[in-house]
Amino acid sequence: MALAGQEKTTAVRSLINLLPDIERSTCFYGCLPEDVEVGGIDAICPDCAKKYAEGQPLTKTEKARIVELPLNARLEDVVGGLDDRAVAHERYRLKRGILSLADQNILYIDEVNLLTDEIVDAILDAAAQGTYTIRRGQISATYKANFTLIGSMNPEEGNLRPQILDRFGLRVVVRGLTSTQERLDAYRRVAAYRSSPRRVVAQFYQETEQARAELQEARNLLSKVILPDRVAQLGIQMIRELQIDSLRAEITMFEAARAYAAADSRVEVTQEDIRIVAPMALRLRRSSFMTKYFAERAQEEEELLATINRMLPQSPT
Ligand SMILES: [Zn+2]
């Protein structure tokens, strides 16, 4: 997800209270009971295999976190690398990177447009696959990196390259509040929080907990939500009408529509769900460069075939 505008960091950080708890592995290698279900007992480390055999839990319940990627992070910090302290003792061990720490959490990158392409690529690859592998000499490790990626940027400070922009799912434009009443409400809440933070938290506790529970229910329901062909075909027609070439447009739009239906406790996506999520999924995806590129290629293809047909006429059959 990409955000633009002011007060974006506050908006992202405020998500933390809404996130459902997560089950996290207690082991350095991130072993999980599901690894055993999939790959047998050899799929987890010896320590965990022992625990598993004794019926001890491999995970503990934790609060979800927002892991922030600092702007000055190096590739080593992001994906992980050799542990310098271990190397000093002539032991070679990998140190986990920010991506693996973000597993099951939110990974937040402020000023995503100011990161180097190398780092953005590593993050987007991991986000797309849910795991990533690093190799340093003889040793390698594969880490789970199943996170929700939120990037924010101030468009005044330069844009993302179109290829990178396309790999972000939903785009939200954040603007300052425009209604006088909303601005006044915001001021009153800030003032109340400053004089008594605890009272404000208590006042919104019920609402926050309810939203959190609803989010958890929606997550549980998501795998059951279906997208009827009729609705899907309409969505694809609309994307073609907009001359958006990237397949990511409909992937994102349909998945967002399924999530939206789940959040509304429904198991079937409607046209209305698509209508609501479409702007987030489709804005900034139209590329005048690609439209022009395809028009030029079509022209070239036509000339190419004409010349081939003239020079090498089809032999009569
Ligand atoms: Zn383990």
Gyration radius over CA: 24 Å
β-sheet strand percentage? 5-15%
Ligand inventory = zinc ion
Q: How is the main sheet built?
A: 5 strands, parallel
SSE string: EHEHHEEHEHEHEHEEEHEHHHHHH
Distance between the termini: 57 Å
- Cα shape: globular
Number of distinct beta strands: 11
Q: Give the helix proportion (percent range).
A: 40-55%
Q: Which spans have pLDDT < 50 for at least 5 consecutive residues? A: none
- Strands of the widest sheet, in order across it, are 4-7-10-1-11
On the 0-100 scale, what is the average pLDDT? 87
Count of DSSP H/I helices: 14
Class by alpha and beta content: alpha/beta
Write structural notes for this entry.
This protein is α/β, with parallel strands linked by helices and 317 residues long. 50% of the residues lie in helices and 15% in strands. It has 14 helices and eleven strands. Strands 4-7-10-1-11 form a five-stranded parallel beta sheet. Strands 2-3 form a two-stranded antiparallel ribbon. Strand 8 and strand 9 form a beta hairpin. Helix 9 (180-195) packs across helix 10, helix 10 crosses helix 12 (248-263) and helix 11 crosses helix 12. The longest helix is centred in the middle third of the chain and has 25 residues, at 197-221. The chain is globular. The termini are far apart. The model has no long low-confidence stretch (mean pLDDT 87). Bound molecules: zinc ion (ZN).
